[in-house]
Write a structure and sequence with these properties.
UDP-n-acetylglucosamine1-carboxyvinyl-transferase, Chain, alpha/beta, single chain, 12 helices, 436 residues
Length: 436
């Protein structure tokens, strides 16, 4: 589909069953493949990103069978993939590419990892440098510091302990990849993170999933991670994937803008996903949030009270970079200026999200200031510019975020099918809860 025209909507109300978390799904798939034993995974996210991981694991010799619509059985390889050679295409799935690169570098095999053109523009040098320090043999096939990569058999350092350093201010996936790979060496390991660690909740999510498979990591200081030796992945048997908190943000914002209530099902107050903190942002903007064990509900002021149901905020987005994109579009419906800070990592995602977000918000009549690591948004003085054609840059989050603009005017979303990366049924779900 080249485009999708969204009619103007006035209210949002209803319930949405969330798809499984992308971040948890791909972590669990990899850990289950590395574990000793059989893992039964329930409610796995069905998307392009998980499809790339499943395809890669099958090529690597992992036995995977689908037992239900979103349920899978994985026979773990006990730390060694059967395939000693493989050519893997991973699309634009960072949650597959970075951890697999780390794990395969330790496998003593020959592998080639590639992706779409945008993946070849996303930096990976900090991860590669750390792996080379271990003794890994990794070569860039294109531009230095970027995919695609070849990995050759190498003797990983035979020292009694491994001590690594990795930068924390480019992508938390580098640290997550190292954390998941190092238990395969059987040696005690220490990782020092230099600079500010962005997206820390995603690292904590990695540690929580590793713990489910029997791996303990000590984090005594903010940027100091210690993995005791002689730990091996053990299947926990059955695992349920909770709903995706990043995907929840669009519906919760819809409830806040469109008066609500909108309830998302599958994620709740005890979630380990960092984007659960998006609820705190909505509350600061004036929304009413209620959290249950496995659901969250959002509502805004009634239409009789104000035509701007929310208020602008100044917010440091370091811990919720993905959900922060939803705030940028929600700012169109807030009184006053909204400033999003500490979002330099947006430039290294599926597209340069800082530049893309600024450009598309201006199409809707917003006054936007774009900085190196911030975005300042002043909503349109009156109404959102109608019938704007929003470009999505092959970025699923751009498409989903800008659907919210339809609360102010009819809009066109170009290339809406890009949402298949994480949420193929998004626009159907959005239509079910929005009303004229």
């Amino acid at each position: 589909m080249k485009w999708l025209d969204l009619p103007v909507v006035a209210t949002a109300q209803g319930k949405v069953q969330l798809p499984g978390s992308k971040s948890i799904s791909n972590r669990i798939l990899l850990l289950a493949a590395l574990a000793d034993g059989v893992t039964h995974i329930h409610d796995l996210l069905a998307s392009d990103d998980t499809a790339r991981m499943l395809e890669a694991l099958r090529i690597l010799g992992v036995s995977i069978s689908q037992t239900g619509e979103n349920d899978y059985q994985i026979e773990g390889c006990n730390g060694k993939f059967p395939a000693r050679e493989a050519d893997l295409f991973l699309g634009n799935a960072g949650t597959a590419f970075r951890p697999l690169a780390a794990v395969l570098a330790i496998m003593n095999g020959s592998y080639r990892l590639s992706g779409v053109a945008r993946m070849h523009e996303r930096p990976i040098a900090d991860l590669v440098d750390s792996l080379r320090h271990l003794g890994a043999s990794i070569t860039y096939l294109g531009n230095e510091g970027f995919p695609p990569l070849t990995i050759k058999p190498a003797e990983i350092n035979s020292t009694n302990t491994h001590t690594l350093t990795v930068k924390g201010n480019v992508s938390s996936q580098f640290l997550s990849g190292l954390l998941m790979a190092l238990p395969l060496t059987g040696k005690p390991s220490t990782i020092h993170v230099t600079g500010d660690l962005i997206s820390r909740p995603y690292v904590e999510l990695t540690l929580a999933q590793m713990k489910r498979f029997g791996i303990q990591v000590e984090c005594n200081e903010q940027n100091h991670f210690v993995l005791p030796g002689k730990q091996f992945y053990q299947s926990p048997g059955d695992i349920n994937i909770e709903g995706d908190a990043s995907s929840a943000s669009y519906f919760l914002a819809a409830g806040a803008i469109g008066h609500g209530p909108v309830r998302v099902l599958g994620v709740g107050r005890n979630s380990l996903q960092g984007d659960i903190r998006f609820t705190e942002v909505l509350e600061k903007m004036g929304a009413h949030i209620t959290l249950g064990d496995k659901w969250i509900e959002s509502r805004g002021l009634s239409s009789s009270q104000t035509d701007k149901p929310l208020k602008g905020i100044d917010f440091d987005c370091n811990h919720i970079p993905d959900a922060a994109m939803t705030i940028a579009v929600t700012a169109l419906f807030a009184s006053g200026i909204t400033t999003l800070r500490n979002i330099a990592s947006w430039r290294l995602k599926e597209t340069d999200r800082l530049s893309a977000m600024a450009k598309e918000l201006r199409k809707l009549g917003a006054d936007v200031e774009e900085g190196a690591d911030f975005l300042r948004i002043k909503p349109p003085a009156r109404k959102i510019t109608p019938n704007a054609a929003i470009d999505t840059y092959d970025d699923h989050r751009m498409a989903m975020c800008f659907s919210l603009a339809s609360f102010g005017a009819p809009i066109r979303i170009n290339d809406p099918d890009c949402v298949t990366k994480t949420f193929p049924s998004y626009f159907e779900k959005f239509a079910q809860i929005t009303h004229p």
